[in-house]
């Protein structure tokens, strides 16, 4: 079963049971470039590892040292099968090519809601913004309510940021966090949106104020990435 390289994952596909997201710290821009090449080689030189792995994507951090990994799976069992029979040999090849990578954790997520900010315009993202929101304690209802509150704010916003393409809101299966995988035309478009009046993305409205003051939020972060590599099964896989 061959592999096929593409520019981005299909975030709207309906056969995804869960998503695995993680970050690697590789240290420097040069090591980042080499690690992306090593990842490509490790996957290109092997058959597709499991039918339950639907796509595997890597993005390069604006900070010059981190890689964001996003993989789509049919379900947890498929990931566990890959973990036992396929993950380590690929990582061993990558680590041999670029030793010293720090793997900073793995989160299991489900896609909850998505929004398109430019329906049918065909824009390709030059930047992916990962927004992490962490909550005090596990509460799956609260995760979804926070996302719903964001959608209310988006739906009533009089002026969306012009460079936004889409947002894909994931909830962690442990009930503690939300991850928004947001596509933007460019890093500059996202920077301009942050610099607009208000406190971050979104107009100055009561709905956005409810998002920003939502109870139980304890932390999180916003990180920009450049799309680097996305892989899916090839023909006959």
Which descriptors would you attach to this protein?
single chain, 29% helix, alpha+beta, 9 strands, eight-stranded antiparallel beta barrel, 37% strand
Topology:
Layout: E1 3-6, E2 18-25, H1 29-44, E3 53-61, E4 66-73, H2 76-84, H3 87-97, E5 102-116, E6 127-135, H4 140-156, E7 164-172, E8 177-184, H5 187-195, H6 206-212, E9 217-233
Antiparallel strand pairs: 1-9, 2-4, 2-5, 3-4, 3-9, 5-7, 6-8, 6-9, 7-8
Helix pairs in contact: 1-3, 4-6
Short description:
Helix content is 29%, strand content 37%. It is α+β, with helices and mostly antiparallel strands. The chain is globular.
3D structure, described in words:
This protein is of the alpha+beta class. Helix content is 29%, strand content 37%. The protein has 6 helices and 9 strands. The protein has helices spanning 29-44, 76-84, 87-97, 140-156, 187-195, 206-212; strands at 3-6, 18-25, 53-61, 66-73, 102-116, 127-135, 164-172, 177-184, 217-233. It has an 8-stranded antiparallel beta barrel, surrounded by 4 helices. A hairpin with a 4-residue loop joins β3 and β4. α1 packs across α3. The relative contact order is 0.23. The mean pLDDT is 91.
